[in-house]
Amino acid sequence: MRSFTSQLLGVPLLMWTASASPLHTARDSAGINWTPCEFPNATLPIQCANLSVPLDYTSSNSSETMTLPVFRVQAAVDEGSKKGSILYNCGGPGADCLNDLISWGDVLQASTGGYHDIVTFTPRGTGKTLKFNCFPDDLSRALGMPALVGNASDVAVGETWAKSILYGNTCAAAQNKTGNLIGTAFVARDMMQIVDALQEDGLLRYWDHMLTTVDVGISYGTLLGETVLGMFPDRVDKILLDGVVNPFQYYANLETETLVDADATFEGFCKGCVENPDVCPLAKNQTAEQLQESIYTFLEQLRLNPIPTPQGSLLDYSTVKGALLYVNLKFPSLWPSIAKKLDALMNGSLPTGIGGGDSSTVSPSSPDALYGIKCGDTFTENQTLEDVLPILESRINGNRIAGEVNAPSICANWKIRAKERYSGDFRVKPLNPALIIGNTYDPVTPLVSARNVSETFEGSVLLQHDSYGHTTLMQASLCTAKAIRAYFVRGELPQPGTKCEIDTFPFARTNGWDDVKPRLAAEPIQPKQ
Ligand SMILES: *[C@@H]1O[C@H](CO)[C@@H](O)[C@H](O)[C@H]1NC(C)=O
Ligand SMILES: *[C@@H]1O[C@H](CO)[C@@H](O)[C@H](O)[C@H]1NC(C)=O
Ligand SMILES: *[C@@H]1O[C@H](CO)[C@@H](O)[C@H](O)[C@H]1NC(C)=O
Ligand SMILES: *[C@@H]1O[C@H](CO)[C@@H](O)[C@H](O)[C@H]1NC(C)=O
Ligand SMILES: *[C@@H]1O[C@H](CO)[C@@H](O)[C@H](O)[C@H]1NC(C)=O
Ligand SMILES: *[C@@H]1O[C@H](CO)[C@@H](O)[C@H](O)[C@H]1NC(C)=O
Ligand SMILES: *[C@@H]1O[C@H](CO)[C@@H](O)[C@H](O)[C@H]1NC(C)=O
Ligand SMILES: *[C@@H]1O[C@H](CO)[C@@H](O)[C@H](O)[C@H]1NC(C)=O
Ligand SMILES: *[C@@H]1O[C@H](CO)[C@@H](O)[C@H](O)[C@H]1NC(C)=O
Fold first, then answer.
1. Is the pTM of this model over 0.90?
2. Widest CA span of the chain, in angstroms?
3. Does the pLDDT of residue 474 top 90, yes or no?
4. What is the sign, positive or negative, of the torsion defined by CA atoms of 461, 91, 509, 345?
5. Long-range contacts of range 345-353, CB-CB < 8 Å, 24 or more positions apart?
6. Using a 6 Å cutoff on CB, does residue 173 contact ligand 4?
7. Domain boundaries, the chain
8. Which atom of ligand 1 is nearest to the CA of 40?
9. What is the CATH code of the structural domain delimited by 33-130+180-256+422-504+512-521?
10. Bridge partners for 241 per DSSP
C-alpha cells in the first residue's frame, strides 16, 4: 500500500508542522466488504459497506478511527472486463451523495459506458459520522442562521454581519470537539483511503456532480476534486470536474466570480417561461423582459410587505428571492414548479413547500455542514465588515438576482478552522489531463471559473455544455455524454473549444435522458487495447 507521507502540501505551520508529524499513513487495507442494500426506488442495485478511516490525519500517534459509509453501483460488464472504479461526489458541501446514486445510478452508469463501478460515500460532517450540527432543532436554526440574501433593507447588511458573528459563536460552541475534522483536505485523504481499500491500481478516478438539490451549495465536488488533485497529482488517473468552483477564490473567501452568470440564467428562466406558457403560468402573454420586470416589481413589494403564512413563518424578500428563486435557478427541471409557486404568490394565493430545492430528494444532512466545511476551509482570519463590503458590493453590482447572497459574511466570522487546509497553488500536472466542463449559463459556477481551472491544471481540456443551470446531467446532451464516456473508457479528451448542444430545453417536461440513454447505448464504445 502506498502511504500519504509523500504529499505534505498545504498545512499552515500554525496548525501543524509538517516536518514534526508525518500524516497518518494508510493502514494495510483489508478491502471493502460489500453487502447488498435495500433502496426500493434505486434505478440500479446498490451495495453498501463501512470503511474505517483515521479520525484525525494530523495526529500521527492517534489510532482513533471513524466509520465512512460507502456505496456503489456495479459496472454493467462482467468482472473480467471491468475497468477501475470511479469515485463520485456530489455538491454541497454538506450533501450526502447516496441520493444521487439512488436516483441517477442508471445515468451515471450509461455515461461511463458500464465499465466502471461507481462508488460514493457520505463525507465527513454530513452523515451520522461527525455530523456538523449547530442547533438542537430546526426552529432554533431558523432563528439563528443569517438570512440567505442580505440587503433587503438599509439595515440588512449590518444585521447579517452581526448575525453571522452569533452564528459563528453558536457553531464554535456546539462543534468544539470534532468541528475541525471535517475540512476538505481530510475528505481528500478519506478518498485516497477508499482508493486503497478498493485494491485496484491505487489510482483515483473521480467524477463530481450535483444532482440532488442542495440549498445554497456550490458544486463542492469540484472543489474537492481540485484539492485532491493539488494534494495527490501522481495518484489521480482521471478526473472530471463539472460545475467548476474557482478554488483560489473559495479558499480566500473572496468569491466575486461565482455569481457572474446568474442574471443571464434568470433571463433564461424568463425566456423559457414565455416560450412555454403551457407549463409556465407566469407567462401571461408577456415578453421575457416584461416578465422579468414584473417579478422584480413583486420582489420590491415583498421588501415592504412580507407575507405571514398559516404555518407561522414569513415569506419575505430574502426567502422568496433567495430560497425560492435564486437557489432553484440551478435546476432547470424544477423551473415549471418554481414558476407555479411564484405565480401563486404573485396572485395572492399561498403556495406550500417553499424552501431550497426539492426537499423530497435531499437526505437529512445538516444545513450547517455547508458552512462548517466551507468556512472551516477558508484562510480568513479576522476579516472585518470593511474587508467584506467591497466583495459584497462587487457581487451586488451587475448581479441583480443573486448579488446579495451573503455567504462571505458567514465565513468571515467563522471560528473553527479545519485542522488541515490545502494551501498549494493547484499548478500541478496530473498523470492524465483532467476533463473540465462548464455550462454556458450556470448561476453559481460560471464558465469563467471552469476556464480558470482548465488553464491551471496542466493539459486539461475545457468542454462547454450549452445549457442553463448547474452541472451537465440535469439537461441531457448526447454530445456531452459521449465526451464523458470517451474520457473514462478510452482516456480520450474532446477537442479544445468543443461546445455541446443539449437534447432538451428549459421548461421542457423532461431532462432529456429518456431520449439520450438509448442513443448512447446504440453507439457502444470499447476500451483501448
Ligand atoms: C419510492 O417511490 C414511491 C413512489 O414515487 C414513493 O411513494 C416512496 O416514498 C419512495 N420510497 C422511498 C424510500 O424513497
Ligand atoms: C455501517 O455502520 C452502521 C453503524 O455505524 C450500521 O448501522 C450499518 O448497518 C453499517 N453498514 C454496513 C453495510 O455494514
Ligand atoms: C501524541 O504524542 C504526543 C507526544 O509524543 C503527546 O503529547 C500527545 O498527547 C499524543 N496524543 C495522543 C492523542 O496520543
Ligand atoms: C466544548 O463545549 C462544551 C459545552 O459548552 C464544554 O463543556 C467543553 O468544555 C468544551 N470543550 C472544549 C475543548 O472547549
Ligand atoms: C397577447 O399580446 C398581443 C400583443 O400585445 C395581443 O395582440 C394578443 O391579443 C394577446 N393575446 C392574448 C391571448 O391576450
Ligand atoms: C394563482 O396561481 C396559481 C398557480 O399558477 C393558479 O393555480 C391559480 O389558479 C391562480 N389564482 C388566481 C386567482 O389567478
Ligand atoms: C486575529 O485576532 C486575534 C485576536 O485579536 C489575534 O490573537 C490573532 O493573532 C489574529 N489573527 C491574525 C491572523 O491576525
Ligand atoms: C444595499 O441596498 C441599498 C439600498 O437599499 C444600496 O444603497 C446599497 O448599495 C446596497 N448594497 C449594499 C452592499 O449595501
Ligand atoms: C484564476 O483565478 C484567480 C483568482 O481570481 C486568479 O488569481 C488567477 O490568475 C486565475 N488564473 C487563471 C489562469 O485565469
1. no
2. 69
3. no
4. negative
5. 345/298, 345/307, 345/315, 345/320, 346/282, 346/294, 346/295, 346/298, 350/307, 350/309, 350/310, 350/315
6. yes
7. 33-130+180-256+422-504+512-521
8. 13
9. 3.40.50.1820
10. 436
